[in-house]
Amino acid sequence: MSAATRQYMPPNGRLQTTNLPYQSDVPRAVAALLETTKQLQETLRLWSVSQASEIHVSGVYVRLGTEFNSTVVAFQTFGIDMSEIYQIPQDLRTVLEGCLSEDPSIQTLNKYLPRVRQIIATLLRGLQSKQTAYWNAVGDASMRR
Which residues form the Aip3p/Bud6 N-terminal domain (predicted)? Predict the structure, then answer.
């Protein structure tokens, strides 16, 4: 393998090889993921007052899953293990299924939103815990170019 490629293991378990990533891939992926977590919370709020449907909430959740996978892959291309946050999408799905199985109301939102926020906080802590490894990897990658 040349210095310009890296191997990584995405959550699907298939070893893949990619060109060495650009430094901006991780910040861009993280920013998109964080924006989608905000959209999820806002869409849940809208759902609770019947201004968004279950389909809208589900669509934002699917987008969050896509952004999550992109973020994990972006970190893994730098050799950074993200396995401690792999359960985040499933945890969110479980909470959302419970929430959406009930009638839309502020009471339902107040019942489930704290858990959604707790899961998002766990995600944020997981991402934050990888910052040093990322910046070290970026420094190492730029020295090899």
Answer: 28-135
